[in-house]
Amino acid sequence: MELLNCFKSKTDSINCLKIYKEFVIVAGDDGTIKIFDLINGDLQHTLSHSSNGEEGIDKFILHQHKIIAVYTDRSIRVWCLKNNKLISILRGHNDEIELF
Known about the structure:
Elements: E1 14-20, E2 23-28, E3 33-37, E4 43-47, E5 57-63, E6 66-71, E7 76-80, E8 85-90
Antiparallel strand pairs: 1-2, 2-3, 3-4, 5-6, 6-7, 7-8
């Protein structure tokens, strides 16, 4: 078996990974979502919006060109994959957030 690619630029733990079209999307303890080119491994985008730098990402799902991410501060952030912008932050959850 031959190693085809090595994705660099993620320094903390990776908690979730998804393949979307020609991209690999990873998220983890540093609170960032990194989008890599699946073919050449180049980092394409970093999505980050942390007020204090302490919120990690527990999990995320992809839905209709959006990333819906659950953060360790019990917030949900919705990112648009078309323009790589934060759409909204949902707060007020008191317990663990489950994704479908």
